[in-house]
Amino acid sequence: MRWLSKHARALGGTACSLLATCLLFVTCLLFVTCLRAGPAAAQDAAAPPPPDAAAATAPPAGPAPLDERVIATVNDDVISTYDLGQRIRLLIVTAGIQPTNDNMPQLEREALSSLIDERLELQELKREEKQQKFSIIATDADIDDEIANIAKNNNTTPQQLLASLAQQGVGAKTFRDQLRAEISWQRWIRGRYGSRLKIGEDQIKAFEAREAAEADKPRYQVSEVLIDPQRAGGEAPAMKEANQLVAQIHQGAPFSAVARQFSADSTAANGGDAGWVTAGEFPPQVDAALQQMRPSQLSAPIPTKDGIYIIYLRNKAAGANTLLISLMQAAVPLAANASQAQVDAATAKLEGLRARLHGCTNFLAIAGKVDGIVAGDLGEAEAKDLAPAFRTAALAMNVGDVSQPLRSDEGLHLIAVCNKRTNAAQGMDHDQIENLLFGRQLSMISRRYVRDLRNSADIETR
């Protein structure tokens, strides 16, 4: 997915003016990270394909000379094979992806799409400059300032940053052209539409009401990549592309960088960060996968009617009013068919231990020294997920209480309640909701604007 539509996602207040700097800082941080990994790693990460990938049998071992011929025209504005090769190099370094024969068509498609959209946006800005009689496109001084900010955030100098990119085969002009397009388009969208957008109190109240109504549902902190089958050439190519990206992420490609470059969703501008979402906000297939996933787990590709999702679950939480209970236990293992004599002996042992326990303080230290008793921290769990006998006892107990011996098919148990709490999460305040809704609307306007430019343009690829 092209960067510019994604990076046009704007936030309310001063956050919007910092968006480009933050995104570009992350991009260059990836460049510098690749370089600091060592000469061999940097060379591998930056190994660019030849401009005509169809003629290649394998990715080159290092930067190769780029020829120059016309590969596309956008309203008579030429995109050369040199332009495409440079952008592919930038894409490889930025996303941290290793080029292979399998993923070269995908890299070429994303790079060319990005270049086409940049040409369309700059053409539109030049047309508006003539009509409006004032400058819109970022100047060389603006780009110099942006590069200086990026370099500062990476603890380096502009000269060192550009030299590092040059070592990866990325020319300074390629980098500057991309910055110019991003900054200019973001300024234009916000300047033209920002003052017209008004987030009403009714919209904010509706958002708050919806959040309150869904407070008891599980919540997931999610990052996402959405592959659009239409852009990929069909369902089968989209699934192949998604599997390649999953493999690259497992091999070390940063999820956020992959999302920025390849995701068709608006969250791509934030590295795929969808934030905390409530069950039901995603398609049913994604919800079903999230219920089975653990924090820090990456999903397999998930086909839906909207496209193919790749989900990274960063964290999960129970509903706001869900009761969470922290428990410790001491147990004597017993078979389900243990004799009454064995049960009585285990009961006596646990009753003797119980008299020495005082809540969770020193629970493990004391119980762990008794022969034949297995002690452990059960951690925190939702009350509804506890075994029935544990749940009934824990709900009736206060924090610090130790239960009577409880029978299960695995043995006889004492449990201590260490904590009880509801998962009451603090929601967004009025200004945060307003900024969120404002940013969503600007992002939607930008995507529609670029889509209309594409539909009306004369675009020819060769």
- SSE run: HHHEEHHHHHHEHHHEHEEEEHHEHEEHE
- Overall average pLDDT: 81
Q: What is the number of helical segments per DSSP (H or I, 4+ residues)?
A: 17
Tell me the distance between the termini: 20 Å
Structural class: alpha+beta
Q: What is the CA-atom radius of gyration, in angstroms?
A: 28 Å
Strand content: 15-25%
Uncertain regions: pLDDT < 50 for 5+ in a row? 1-65
Structure explained in plain terms:
- The chain has 462 residues and is of the alpha+beta class.
- It folds into three domains: 3-202 and 431-438, Triger factor/SurA peptide-binding fold; 217-319, Chitinase A, domain 3 (Roll); 323-422, Roll (Chitinase A, domain 3).
- Helices cover 50% and strands 17% of the residues.
- It is built from 17 helices and twelve strands.
- The strands form three sheets. Strands 3, 4, 5, 6 and 7 form a five-stranded antiparallel beta sheet that branches.
- Helix 2 packs across helix 6, helix 5 packs across helix 8 (172-193) and helix 9 packs across helix 17.
- The longest helix is centred in the N-terminal third of the chain and has 29 residues, at 104-132.
- It is elongated.
- The two termini are 20 Å apart.
- Mean pLDDT is 81; it is low at 1-65.
Provide a brief overview of the structure.
This protein has 462 residues and is of the alpha+beta class. It contains 17 helices and twelve strands.
